[in-house]
Structure formats: structure tokens, C-alpha cells
Amino acid sequence: MLSYQHGYHAGNRADVLKHAVLHTILSGLTAEPSPLFYIETHAGRGRYDLTGEQARKTSEAETGVLSLLIEQAPKPLAPWLELVRARGKTAYPGSPDIAASRLRTGDRIVLFEKHPAEYKGLAEALGDDPRVQIKKSDGYGGALKLQPRRGERLCVFVDPSYETERDMDALAEWAPRALARWPKAIIVLWLPLFFDERELDFGAYLSELSEGTIVGARWPVEFDADTALSGSAIVAYGVDKKTSMAASSIANSLQSLWGS
Fold first, then answer.
1. What is residue 36's three-state secondary structure?
2. Which of 121, 146, 176 has the alpha carbon at shortest distance from 39?
């Protein structure tokens, strides 16, 4: 969908879990010496102004990342929050910027983004990075055309808008193709958790495709709240036990913080 712009939701509670877990996964991968090839299918603009018009219209960051910068944050989130503080409120790091912050000189990054405004913002944020290629095209089809070079490990991050049920259908079709295409890759999927739990069957389907790690957190939502979202989850295939435990620590700490 070309109507979705993440600036309205940047830094919200769903972002907190998603970005903290992604930061942990990439930190673990870059601790190994072999080069890393990172692909993102729905990149967004890379950095977000949490003081800007879009963020102020929803104020979702106030109960998400901004609250963690003010209050005592759970210890498992500390490495990611260090990056957030370094960027500041006007350049909150989205997943492409998190990847750029963790990957090294010899690593590669390919980012797909179709929305014209988001593509422009992404190019402005990361277009000068020699490690980064930015493509204004379909991320699902474009990603499947790529392969890691000899000696490279592959990490693919998938974060669609989920504006309609077609978004789930598209991922349901893409995920088994990706697992077959890249059997040794680390594939990381973000999954929204809805107030009406419509994602449960879809989550079960993803969990049965291959052995993986599933972490998430839910929080209370008022019945009359202007949101269908009541939680956030990550499905990650191919991560090691240490990384899986670290991701679980993040999710569990957020569940304890926000779950009551």
C-alpha cells in the first residue's frame, strides 16, 4: 500500500519491541567476523522526527520510546536506547538506520521502499552511505532476486504496513519462498498483535514454516481507543540460542513494564 507513512507511528510501543530486538539480532550477527548482507523489504524513511507534525498528530511515541528516555528503562533495552539517545528526538532511528549503525565497513545493505515520500526521505538519510543501495521497487519480488556472495551471511528484515488483510496474504505467500530460497539465512518478520487477535492463525502458520524464535509483548488497550494494535511480535528464523534468549529478555521486560 502506498498510503502508509510510518512517521505517524514512529517510536510507538510496537516500534520499541521491533527495533530493540532487531538491534540485538544485528549486534549478535556482527560479532562474527564473516561479512553480512542485510536486506529490508519495506524500509520506510530510515529516520523520523518525533517532534514533527506526523508524530505529534498521534503522540504514539509519548507512551513508547520517549517514556523510556525519561523513566528507568529495562536493562535489556540499554544498547538500543544508547543509539536512540545518540540520534536524538529529531532523527529517531528506524530499522535501516539501526542496520547502518551495526553493520561494518565490509558489509552490504539493500533497502526497498516504494512510497515516493518515504523513498525520498530514505535516500536523504542513508543515500550517501557507500554500503547502502536503495531501490524504489517491490521489496518482496526484489529481495528474492538477490543472493549473498560467497562467504557472506544473509539477514532479511520484513516489516510491511499490515494496512489490509492482503498484507498478511502477501507475506504468507512470500515467507515459504524466502525460506526455500535462502535456507541458511536469518529471516526476521515483524508481526502486529491486534486487539481482536486476528493475527493468531497467521502467527501459528509462520511458526510452522520452519524452526524459529517468536517473541512479543501485549499491553492493555481501552475499548474506545483509536487503534486496533495491542501488541508487537518478532518471528525470527535462523538465529542462534544466545540471540534468541536476548530477544526474549527484551520482550519479557516490556511485557512486565506495559502488560498491566
1. strand
2. 146
Single out the catalytic residue among 15, 97, 107, 159.
159
C-alpha cell at 139: 521489496
Per-residue pLDDT of the chain (260 residues; tens, 9 = 90+): 456 778 888 999 999 999 999 999 999 999 999 999 999 999 999 999 999 999 999 999 999 999 999 988 999 999 999 999 999 999 999 999 999 999 999 999 999 999 999 999 999 999 999 999 999 999 999 999 999 999 999 999 999 988 777 889 999 999 999 999 999 999 999 999 988 888 999 999 999 999 999 999 999 876 555 567 899 999 999 999 999 999 999 999 999 999 86
User: 79's torsion region: left (phi>0), alpha (psi -120 to 50) or beta?
Assistant: alpha
> What pairing do the DSSP bridges indicate for beta strands 132-135 and 153-158?
unpaired
* pTM greater than 0.90 (yes/no): yes
- How many angstroms separate the CA atoms of 198 and 176, rounded? 21
Helical ranges in the chain per DSSP H: 13-29, 53-58, 65-70, 78-87, 95-102, 116-126, 139-144, 165-181, 200-209, 241-258
169: annotated active-site residue:
no
- Cα→Cα distances 218→93, 230, 251, 256, 259, Å: 23, 6, 9, 10, 6
